Amino acid sequence: MRAEDAGVHILLLEDDSQTADALRAGFTRSGFDVTWAASCAEALRSVATTRFDAVILDLMVPGGSGYDVLEELRARGDDVPVLILTARDQVPERVEGLERGADDYLVKPFAFAELMARLRALLRRPTRRVDSLRVDALDIDPLHRRVTAHGRHVDLTRVEFDILLALAEQHGSTVTRRDLLATVWGYRFEPGTNVVDVHVARLRRKLESAGAADTIRTVRGIGYALGE
């Protein structure tokens, strides 16, 4: 058991009892506290009364979907890291979860070691700067995690804010996808997904709606840059 794992409380939404038992046993051995929900209703009751350190959601569960829980969390401004477990291996279906506000996803079947690596990465919150930045029309306040464009508030998820901040800190310079994975997700490995591109696309749409179109540049084959 790693010291940093002790006391971490996670919610696991998984309707298959054998899968849930295996995952709970693995998490418990790692020092995590696990709340198990076998249905959408159980998971919604849990998130209504408990603040979790991370949430793992299966999609196809009785009484609804893991998406219902994800949307409830994000609707009330809860930025808890959310990892989706899905048997849907088509790209549009995988992207849907990220579009709805999940931090990452893992396609079934998967190795428990990979699940733990992704979960630990999402739980790592690197220490960031507290002084504000201004890039073109954007004002970024890391301390209060607020962004305005032309004086208008831009509502960003935790991941979207961290991507924007990482790009702003390298104003004008290219930030590679690998660097974003390390800085924003804490990944020290390549997850083999387009998770970065999906979240950047969402961030771009929000900035565009706030009047800050074309703020993020794509550097083909490498990554992204903010401003000139």
Q: Count the domains.
A: 2
- Per DSSP E runs of 2 or more residues, the count of β-strands stands at 14
Largest sheet: 5 strands, parallel
Q: Name the CATH class of the largest domain.
A: Alpha Beta
Identify the quaternary structure here.
single chain
Write the H/E string, N to C.
EHEHEEEHEHEHEEEEHEHHEE
What average pLDDT do the residues reach? 87
CATH fold-type name of the largest domain: Rossmann fold
Q: Which shape, going by the Cα principal axes?
A: globular
CATH architecture of the largest domain: 3-Layer(aba) Sandwich
Radius of gyration: 18 Å
The CATH superfamily of the largest domain bears the name: Response regulator
Helical proportion, percent range = 25-40%
How many separate helices? 8
Structural class: alpha/beta
